[in-house]
From TrEMBL, chain A:
This is Urea ABC transporter, permease protein UrtC. It comes from Marinobacterium lacunae. GO terms for molecular function: branched-chain amino acid transmembrane transporter activity. The chain crosses the membrane at residues 48-66, 73-92, 128-151, 158-176, 206-223, 255-275, 295-318, 330-350. It is found in: Cell inner membrane. Its main location: membrane. InterPro entries: ABC_transp_permease (IPR001851), ABC_transptr_urea_perm_UrtC (IPR017778), LivM-like (IPR043428). CDD domains: TM_PBP1_LivM_like. Pfam families: BPD_transp_2. It comes from the Bacteria.
From TrEMBL, chain B:
It comes from the Bacteria. Pfam families: ABC_tran, BCA_ABC_TP_C. The lineage of its organism: Bacteria, Pseudomonadati, Pseudomonadota, Gammaproteobacteria, Oceanospirillales. The keyword Nucleus does not apply. One of its GO terms (molecular function) is ATP binding. It comes from Marinobacterium lacunae. GO terms for cellular component: plasma membrane. This is Urea ABC transporter, ATPase protein UrtD. Keywords: ATP-binding, Nucleotide-binding, Transport. Residues 36-279 form the ABC transporter domain. InterPro entries: ABC_AA/LPS_Transport (IPR051120), ABC_transporter-like_ATP-bd (IPR003439), ABC_transptr_urea_ATP-bd_UrtD (IPR017781), BCA_ABC_TP_C (IPR032823), P-loop_NTPase (IPR027417).
UniProtKB/TrEMBL annotation, chain C:
The chain crosses the membrane at residues 249-276, 304-324, 336-354, 388-405, 472-496, 502-521. GO terms for cellular component: plasma membrane. InterPro entries: ABC_transp_permease (IPR001851), ABC_UrtB_bac (IPR017779), BCAA_transport_permease (IPR052157). Keywords: Amino-acid transport, Cell membrane, Membrane, Signal, Transmembrane, Transmembrane helix, Transport. Belongs to the binding-protein-dependent transport system permease family. LivHM subfamily. This is Urea ABC transporter, permease protein UrtB. Pfam families: BPD_transp_2. GO terms for biological process: amino acid transport.
């Protein structure tokens, strides 16, 4: 069977998918238990885990291009944020006349800026299907254009890393501008409902959790499918000896372009699921620090193992939540130290410690 | 290409982007029995002439040895043939119809020119089997390789090559764990899988034992006929055994052909002796 | 000369100075008393009398009084009818008596009353101020006075200037006076004189001259004169645009100098050694904080502290840099992507360390006096001194660095190691030692850049972050491994930024420059001035 074929050599992935399936069944049940029960799972926690899962999906997307293709992207946060903005725009339009200014057509911040009509790029975002397409299309298109330019002129290595960082930095500056029409500094927030379901309600939050878990599972399977095919082996070949692959007749730039674009689209989906769960999207999501943090999740989890990326994202984000609440001053020290320790001492990440000599 | 023309190309609705179209190659034509033409090629790096008005013809099915002292331009010549370096002037044709200077590395490789590097480069994280699989001739388009599976015929061919390069016992070994000599063999195996019309082999026997050298010589000779083989080598014993009595040997010096002919002729050429032994 | 005789000499001088003052002092006192009495009156006529009285008698305090009047800081005490200067009209604040310069605390606000002016009086006062200015022995005062009058040329002012023009002997002042006369004459002159006036004004960049011409061109009926005026206007416009361009260039160069300063350390660590140091921005930040600390240590010598800070910042950043190289980077040579991640981690640690030690808030570093101010080239172009210092400093650092790399044995070893490590080692160069020193040099230069930046922006934990991307852009744009490329790239990016700014806005200009570089790198991955040759081709 198809699933069996692509998952048979992937022990970590099997466990991950099993856990995701289990959580989809168990989380609603545990959440439904009376709140004094020891096993009760508060909705707050459900949303928190849902958020982690979307970040894990982003980590998988980064692992696809960094782990397998060797492109150290420092700008994947941009694709994540673009997906998030597309979803945020839909949620803004859903507010309708329930905003502070009660304008049925324009979001509050536009009324505040004295705009008279909806900018053209906001058209269509009142339809969910349109927004859903844009969630993948916009990051995909940006990645495609950027990648087509960069890979064809053979920009690689640190140069590519630096221009991906410049890309997300430029986008951050752009989105901070009010004139861009994306809410400037404050971004998009005060969402009310999604597809007619209130974002505050328990059931919607459970639904979003399940959607995140499914998205992670599907994203994982997609990446796994790509990477266990011959295309995946070409990717590894490109990563390790790019010019050799070229002399063998492989169009390295096309391989990179496709994988990079797919990865950007996955990141976009992750962003779209992230936004309704945290309730806000602002230009800070574009900040270079965010993108580079994702790389550390992957490094900590273990490059070129997709489940490692998931593990890394979950572990570090849990640690981040813990530290920023309990010891806010220590967090950046810890994160910074982690960067150094992982690169110096744990080149294969924590899953590399558990793994024996296993094929990549 | 200038920025302007790039933008124009991206905006052009009538055509698919050039980087997305498979580079269609004209059919190889060797009517005149000559496979590779290099004519009047010059290339310089910062004023240093690496190749200076080089003329070289390789016949179809020929085994040609190229020797020359360090800096004679052997590697640069290979770079030009495989598309890595663009010459300043000159022409390079593959058969009668294919202009190599219009093509990039993958296109040239797909047209049928395979290259083995001086330093063995194999994909270290992939297994021996996977290395050979990737080298296997076939469609290289992204969607095609995504769905590609190995069929029975290809499987037989893989086994055959594994046998030939002496790695039959180790198909699932990581290429990175092979010894230096084994990597050389694996790379030769990858060239064979590619089934090129022209093989460019850069110092194939570096780091090999004498037995292995003999086997390599045997293998390369056996390839000649079906393929054209160009061997660049320093090791004179190896060249002598490869060239035998009637094969052509070319001597490069300072970026152009110093002498060409059978091994004995070349060895007795005064200019060649001067270059090799010093004035 | 002994101290005693010197003292005697001074006393003698003082006496000579005092004698003539004494003679008129009695008269001045009377005038002052009379004027003070008149000023406290409610009637504006009497106030006018008082002002004229002071001016006609050349009373030494006239200038001070006029200024206070114009700025509404002149009050009189209802109890003793004396005149006071009050800067802050609140209880317990000081009121300074103009009679003897003694400050008195304001007990009750209602004891003091402000001496007010009407519009007519205001123009009178202005005229008197101008008159005093025109008579001033100080050249720049006179110049300022004429300039001041340009905007309000009327009959009286015209007469005043004509009178002063005859006595004036400074060519610069005469030039401005001619313009003032032309402005004054223009509206009412006959054709020939108007033509002369237009010709005079055409050569001036004073905004008032332009206004006068615009007004004249709009109101005159004479077509020929109108054309001449319009032509003159166009000429002025063009010159103003030219100087505007020069100013933009200047701003651009100073911004570019900052970029070069920030990037040049990176040009060494990244360009020469091939090490990606994401903590470079934080090394700049450390330099800025060093400046701050040194200024705290010597608060009374701001200028000196800045000069002391330069070597200190160099040392601090260089030592931290060497620690980073020895502790982390040397284990990662040949793995640029890992180096990038590890040094990024270090940058986070350094940021947080600064936040913990100092505070998350921005600190401001004082600017010494000799660095603030303007150099006025002409009415539309004046250059800020601090920017001039930055440009000069940048060039100084650049050439010093060039000298170090080209002329010292360290420079030779650095270049040797960067070109062929194995060979350099074989020749007896201790490559590890060279690595550490090179990295220290690049880091130290970053620290020096921090000193310069502390004069331009606030010093805070995020200072470095905001420069790191720019620095990389400069180095990559200029061509890796090429100091000259860094200089040209930095300056041209700075200028490009400032040229784009007026019509795109600061943020958009920055975005455009970033996008341009992204596209540029795609086109020429090796930058403006690539290193060429076989080694670079590989």
């Amino acid at each position: 069977m198809f699933l069996w074929r692509i998952m048979k050599d992937d022990r970590g992935g099997q466990i991950l998918l099993a856990l995701l399936a289990a959580s989809i069944v168990l989380v609603p049940i545990l959440n439904g238990l009376p709140s004094d029960s020891a096993l009760h799972l508060p909705t707050y926690t459900v949303t928190l885990i849902g958020k982690y899962l979307t970040l894990a999906l982003l980590a998988v997307a980064v692992d696809l291009v960094w782990g397998y293709l060797g492109i150290l992207t420092l700008g994947h946060g941009a694709f994540f944020a673009l997906g998030g903005y597309a979803m945020g725009m839909y949620l803004m339009r859903q507010i309708g006349d329930r905003g502070v200014y009660g304008n049925p057509e324009l979001p509050d911040f536009m009324v505040f800026l004295n705009w008279q009509e909806l900018p053209w790029f906001w058209q269509g975002f009142d339809q969910f299907w349109f927004a859903a397409i844009m969630v993948m299309l916009v990051p995909g298109a940006l990645a495609f254009v950027f990648g087509a330019l960069a890979f064809r002129s053979r920009v690689s290595g640190v140069y590519l890393s630096i221009i991906t960082q410049a890309l997300t930095f430029a986008l951050m500056l752009a989105f901070y501008r009010n004139e861009m029409g994306f809410g400037g500094n404050n971004g998009l927030t005060d969402f009310k409902d999604l597809l007619g379901f209130s974002l505050q309600s328990n059931s919607t939050r459970i639904g979003l959790f399940i959607a995140s878990a499914l998205a992670l599972a599907f994203g994982y399977l997609l990446c796994r499918y790509l990477m266990q095919s011959r295309l995946g082996r070409v990717c590894v070949a490109v990563r390790d000896a790019e010019s050799r692959a070229r002399f063998m007749g492989y169009r390295v730039e096309n391989v990179k372009l496709w994988i990079f674009t797919i990865s950007a689209m996955i990141a976009g989906v992750a962003g779209a699921l992230y936004v309704p769960q945290v309730g806000i999207i602002n230009p800070n999501e574009f900040s270079p620090l965010n993108s580079i943090e994702v790389v550390v999740w992957v490094a900590v989890g273990g490059r070129a193992t997709l489940y490692g990326a998931v593990v890394g994202a979950l572990v570090i984000n849990y640690a981040k939540s813990y530290f920023t609440a309990e010891l806010p001053d220590v967090w950046l020290f810890a994160l910074g130290g982690l960067f150094v320790l992982v690169t110096l001492l744990l080149p294969r990440g924590i899953t590399g410690l558990l793994r024996s000599k296993e094929a990549v | 290409m200038s920025l302007q023309s790039t933008v124009a190309e991206v905006l052009d609705r009538e055509h698919v982007f050039s980087f997305m179209t498979p580079q269609s190659t004209a059919k190889l034509n060797v009517d005149k029995n000559v496979l590779l033409y290099l004519e009047g090629i010059s290339v310089s790096f910062d004023g240093f002439k690496a190749i200076n008005d080089l003329n070289l013809y390789i016949n179809d099915g020929e085994l040609r040895c190229i020797i020359g002292p360090n800096g004679a331009g052997k590697t640069t010549m290979m770079d030009i043939i495989t598309g890595k370096t663009r010459p300043d002037t000159g022409a390079a044709w593959f058969g009668q119809t294919i202009n190599l200077l219009d093509m990039d590395e993958p296109a040239i490789a797909q047209a049928g020119i395979g290259r083995k590097f001086q330093k063995p480069t194999v994909f270290e994280f992939l297994t021996v089997f996977e290395n050979l699989e990737l080298a296997m001739a076939g469609d290289r388009a992204v969607l095609k390789i995504l769905g590609a599976r190995i069929n029975g015929e290809q499987r037989d061919r893989l086994d055959e090559v594994l046998e030939l390069i002496g790695l039959k016992e180790l198909p699932h070994m990581r290429a990175g764990s092979l010894s230096h000599g084994q990597k050389q063999w694996l790379e030769i195996g990858m060239l064979l899988m590619q089934q090129p019309r022209l093989l460019l082999v850069d110092e194939p026997v570096a780091g090999m034992t004498h037995q292995e050298m003999d086997r390599t010589a045997e293998l390369l000779t056996s390839l000649a006929g079906k393929h054209s083989v160009v061997v660049v080598e320093h090791d004179m014993d190896f060249v002598r055994s490869l060239a035998g009595k009637d094969r052509t040997v070319t001597v490069l010096h300072q970026g152009s052909v110093l002498a060409e002919g059978r091994m004995e002729q070349v060895q007795n050429n005064r200019k060649v002796v001067e270059v090799y032994l010093g004035e | 000369m002994t101290i005693r005789t010197f003292g005697g000499f001074c006393l003698l001088c003082l006496l000579f100075l005092l004698v003539p003052l004494r003679a008129s002092a009695a008269g001045d006192e009377a005038v002052y008393n009379e004027a003070a009495k008149l000023l406290t009156s409610r009637s504006f006529d009497e106030k006018e009398q008082a002002i004229r009285l002071l001016a006609d008698n050349n009373h030494p305090q006239t200038k001070q009084l006029m200024t206070l009047l114009m700025e509404s800081r002149l009050y009189f005490n209802k109890k003793d009818d004396g005149l006071y200067q009050i800067d802050d009209y609140e209880t317990d604040k000081p009121a300074i008596s103009l009679l003897n310069n003694e400050p008195v605390a304001i007990e009750k606000k209602r004891d003091f009353k402000k001496i007010t002016l009407n519009n007519q009086l205001r123009s009178l006062v202005r005229q008197i101020q101008a008159e005093i200015g025109l008579k001033s022995p100080d050249l720049s005062r006179r110049l300022a006075a004429v300039r001041e009058m340009l905007g309000s040329m009327d009959e009286d002012a015209l007469a005043l200037i004509r009178k002063a023009y005859a006595k004036e002997d400074s060519a610069t002042v005469r030039e401005v006076m001619q313009i003032a006369i032309a402005i004054g004459e223009l509206p009412a002159a006959d054709e020939a004189r108007a033509r002369d006036a237009v010709a005079t004004l055409a050569g001036s960049l004073e905004p008032d001259a332009r206004n006068a011409l615009t007004q004249f061109a709009g109101s005159t009926d004479n077509a020929a004169l109108k054309a001449a005026a319009e032509k003159a206007l166009a000429e002025i416009e063009q010159r103003a645009r030219f100087y505007g361009g020069v100013e933009t260039l200047y701003f651009g160069l100073s911004l570019g100098s900052v970029l070069v300063l920030a990037g040049i350390g990176l040009a060494i660590t990244f360009g020469v050694m091939g090490v990606i140091n994401m903590a470079h921005g934080e090394l700049i930040m450390l330099g800025a904080y060093t400046t701050y600390v040194i200024q705290q240590l010597m608060p009374n010598h701001i200028g000196l502290s800045l000069i002391v800070a330069i070597p200190c910042a160099f040392l601090v950043s260089a030592l931290v840099g060497i620690a980073i190289e020895r502790g982390v980077i040397r284990f990662l040579y040949g793995r640029p992507l890992e180096t990038l991640l590890a040094t990024f981690g270090i940058s986070l640690v350094l940021q947080q360390a600064v936040r913990t030690i100092f505070s998350p808030l921005n600190r401001s570093v004082a600017t010494p006096e000799w660095m603030s101010g303007l150099i006025e080239i002409n009415p539309v172009l004046s250059l800020t001194t601090s920017r001039l210092y930055i440009i000069a400093f940048c060039l100084l650092v650049f050439f010093a660095l060039l000298l170090v790399l080209k002329r010292t044995s360290l420079g030779l070893q650095v270049r040797a190691v960067s070109q062929n490590r194995a060979m350099a080692r074989a020749m007896g160069v201790r490559s590890e030692w060279v690595d550490a020193l090179t990295f220290g040099l690049g880091s130290g230069v970053a620290g020096v850049a921090g000193v310069a930046l502390s004069q331009l922006t606030n010093v805070g934990p995020n200072l470095g972050q905001s420069y790191i991307i720019d620095s990389f852009m400069v180095v990559v744009f200029g061509g890796v491994g090429n100091l000259w490329g860094t200089l040209v790239a930095g300056l041209s990016l700075g200028v490009a930024n400032k040229v784009l700014e007026p019509w795109a806005g600061a943020v958009l200009a920055k975005i455009l420059v970033l996008v341009f570089i992204i596209l540029f790198i795609q086109k020429r991955p090796r930058g403006l001035f690539p290193q060429r040759g076989r080694a670079a081709e590989g």
